[in-house]
Amino acid sequence: MTVTPDGVHDALRAEVAGRAGALWDVALRLHADPEYAFAEHRAAALLGGELESAGLTVRREVAGMPTAFTARSGRGRPAVALLLEYDALPGLGHACGHNLIAAAGVGAALALHTVLGGAHGSVLAVGTPAEEGGGGKAVEVEAGVFDDVDAALMFHPGVHDWARAPLTAQVQYRVGFHGRAAHPTGNPTEGIDALAALVELFNVVYALGRRLPPASHIQGIVTHGGTATNIVPDYAEGRFGLRAATTAELDALTAQLDECAEGVARATGTRAETERVTVRYDHFRDSAVLSERFAGHVSRAGITLTPPVPGVQLGSSDIGNVSSKVPAIHPFVAIMDADGSDHTPEFARAAASPRARTVLTAAAQALACTAADVLLDADLRTAAWARHREGEAT
Length: 394
Prior knowledge:
By secondary structure, the chain is of the alpha/beta class. About 40% of the residues lie in helices and about 20% in strands. The protein has twelve helices and twelve strands.
């Protein structure tokens, strides 16, 4: 086959179309057997096995995570990574559609392996555990999985057809207050009420929240409030989720939470402890150069991607950490109408619907074609990296 863009694109679309039934079977098997953060053993075995049986070189337990893996076709640079998510939501199953993300990534990787055969660089299918809580991609970034990659590509099923994902930065902190126990009537002046301090922190955080930028917020819950009503609590603890439009703004918000806790501790005579308890998710930095390519390719299936609605945020994801390292895309393709929502039983059902099957094939084809563009077009890679480095400077 002559290596021309149109010829490669046609061959990749045909290859994915020929595998459509098998890819849908993978998606349904994942959907019927949901597994959760860092325990996706059967999903990782299924996906890694599909790729290994086709001739890709599979490494398991990547970055110290039992359910992370990579599957490589070809070698060296240029290199493109296809990201596979496959964890589910406790109680809801695949209510975020990760079964479709995984199957689409596998389909694109297999098509690229068959059509290009590793002759134009390398394709790396990356199994990324625990997107819903734990941040497998963030761990992989720190472990160097993306050090020699030129682009990272994935799609996400949703309720909108959006070319890029407005995803915020987020992190969670534990805040504990240490006081002194006492009997509330027998010797109340001896007690230092840690719970009162925690309640006051909630009040301060509420007041802070009224003057934060629109995309920033702090949401907290009480995780420990004492042991008995006739004991002044000597320890109280809350867990706070912080989000912001950018990673820099999240860092500033984290500093504000720490200042609030210390101020409350001084005012109440308690001692505050603030500890980060989750991996920090960076905000997502879209590679417009590559997102435009994906949008063009998926339009062949009659799917028109538009910019996101201004001011609408759709949560956070560890793809943000990858996008801080390399040019990345995370378009949304709708599998249900815009009056719906992910993380619901309805969305879980939609992830195994006829519409989802159509989207799976279209997304796998568009991912494969976009990946081929990265591998075959040096000017595209240069432009993507230039825009990425411009973002680092802002």
